[in-house]
Amino acid sequence: MFHVSFRYIFGIPPLILVLLPVASSDCDINGKDGGAYQNVLMVNIDDLDNMINFDSNCLNNEPNFFKKHSCDDNKEASFLNRAARKLKQFLKMNISDDFKLHLSTVSQGTLTLLNCTSKGKGRKPPSLGEAQPTKNLEENKSLKEQKKQNDLCFLKILLQKIKTCWNKILRGIKEH
Amino acid sequence: MTLLSTALGMLFYLLHAVSGESGYAENGDFDDAELDDYSFSCYSQLEVDGPQHLLTCTFDDLDINSTNLEFEICGALLDVDCLNFNKLQERYFLKTKKFLLIGDSKICVKLEKKNMTCRKMNIVKIVKPEAPFDVRVVYREGANDFVVTFNTSHLQKKYVKVLIHEVAYRQEKKENNWMRVNLTSTRLTLLQRKLQPSAMYEIKVRSIPYANYFEGFWSEWSPSFHFRTPETNGTGETDPVLLTISILSFFSVALMVTLACVLWKKRIKPIIWPSLPDHKKTLEQLCKKPKKNLNVSFNPESFLDCQIHKVDGIQARDEAEGFLQDPFSPQLEESEKQRLRGGMQGPSWPSEQAGITPKVFRGESPFRCLAGNASVCDAPGLPSSRSPNGREGGKSRPLVYQDLLLGPGTTNSSLRPPFPFQPGILTLNPVAPGQPILTSLGSSQEEAYVTMSSFYQNQ
């Protein structure tokens, strides 16, 4: 009897404490009227899209990121949260200041509107990918160029997914 | 026990989540004792220099000693936590492109790195647009209006694109009597009739963000533009022509109305509404009965003045002479004379004879014989009408007189009066054969006209 009550006292509450953040949504979507998205985020996403179109030729292969994360029902905020964090990784690329400015606006603006709890606070964001060791400098350059192209393509798809997910959120709010 | 532990765990969890947000550690309370001394106001201007924005703050109290005072903004910034303002005379400004434009920021007044007062502001809610410029007014003579156009730098911006513009204009002589018009476009039309003629006007424009997401304050006024309204002579040049035309048309209409009234009965009405002859009345007029006081007598003695031949009929000699142009005519005269001498025993004249020798008896027509006598006398109109009729009836005359010679009572149903029926012909009652005509005449002396019915009977 004693070890049974002991289990209930010291076993279940911590379990509940652990499971509650996982089960509940950690993001609260602000700006549901769509004003912030339409007047700020969408302007910057369109600018980024124009800048990327000017440079790259993208393949149709969908990166693994989107296979793992998608804007499913009741998971829109979670997807946007991950996507916004992913955008921050592109700031490390060799890109112009205006490009970085737009990226920062979209990323940080999305996170501000989502108002998520810093679940992964302090956690180092995953990198885009590690450069493979190469034998000579020329191969490094071509690989870097290829990597940059791939990253830009990924960024382009990511921005479209972010845009689509925001539209889905706002449409759902209007319908309700 | 389980529930208690669960509640405690949740409480700890919530405390951790709430305390995790930044800003709450600091005192954001507005009830600062020194707030009134360092109260300030700020406004933002987005994309003033390319992608860079401008944030300007000033103290409300201009007399404040701002020597060691600084402004700092934290929150809603890109890639940084806080930014410091620059000072220019009594104004503090920050020119940067690191505004996130989402969420609230906190602007604090610092004195030697100590926060004296702070205010929470949203950069997008304190937007002050740039002043419009290039105000122009063009007069359109054809449309009699003024077209006001102006320009604004926000047309090329990405964020604050939609504005409300206020156009204010006044007559220069009248102070503070501004007329204001709000619009969202950069073009306005003012009607000339709403402005004073030959007057000098002043016009200026300012803008404010359209309250969609961006809000804020009115911009500064644009530079004023002055224009003069034209005189009314321009519009009056066409008036004399119209005035002359209108006067002439008025007088012509009046003249026509007067003439219409004057000539209505005599000229216009007969043409518009001609009086159609009433056949019955017309016939009655033509076949009017003689006046009752008219003393009609077939006594031959009363016709002594008339140049007639005595006949036992009502046929005038002249008429007989008129249509008797063949050899039968002297025979006829002789026979007629014989009959007259025979007196009462003459053949009764059929009504065709009376029809053959039509006499016009009208009360109006003058007679050559004495008044009051029968209408055996010639009517003046007859000679003219007789001759053609005489010619027409020439062919049928032998037939007629054959009948007459044959005897009385013979009626030829086919015989038709050669002369067209003339009104006023003396009617003869059909008399039985052998009866003297004079008696029949005497009986009908009051009926000194021929009716249509007698013709039908003879036929």
From TrEMBL, chain A:
Keyword Metal-binding on entry: no
Signal peptide residues on this chain, from the entry's feature table: 1-25
Keywords: Cytokine, Disulfide bond, Glycoprotein, Growth factor, Secreted, Signal
Disulphide linkage map: 27-165, 58-153, 71-116
Annotated GO biological process: immune response
MF terms (GO), sorted A to Z: cytokine activity; growth factor activity; interleukin-7 receptor binding
Job of this protein: Hematopoietic cytokine that plays an essential role in the development, expansion, and survival of naive and memory T-cells and B-cells thereby regulating the number of mature lymphocytes and maintaining lymphoid homeostasis. Mechanistically, exerts its biological effects through a receptor composed of IL7RA subunit and the cytokine receptor common subunit gamma/CSF2RG.
Protein name: Interleukin-7
Gene: IL7
TrEMBL record, chain B:
Domain Fibronectin type-III: 131-232
Location of the region described as Disordered in the Swiss-Prot/TrEMBL record: 322-355, 378-397
Annotated localization: Membrane
Keyword annotations of the record: Disulfide bond, Glycoprotein, Membrane, Phosphoprotein, Receptor, Signal, Transmembrane, Transmembrane helix, Ubl conjugation
Bilayer topology: Single-pass type I membrane protein
PROSITE patterns xref list: FN3, HEMATOPO_REC_S_F1
Matching SUPFAM superfamilies: Fibronectin type III (SSF49265)
CDD domains: FN3 (cd00063)
Keyword Disulfide bond carried by entry: yes
Cleaved signal peptide residues: 1-20
Transmembrane segments: 241-264
Assembly, per entry: The IL7 receptor is a heterodimer of IL7R and IL2RG. The TSLP receptor is a heterodimer of CRLF2 and IL7R. Interacts with CD53.
UniProt family annotation: Belongs to the type I cytokine receptor family. Type 4 subfamily.
Job of this protein: Receptor for interleukin-7. Also acts as a receptor for thymic stromal lymphopoietin (TSLP).
Record-given protein name: Interleukin-7 receptor subunit alpha
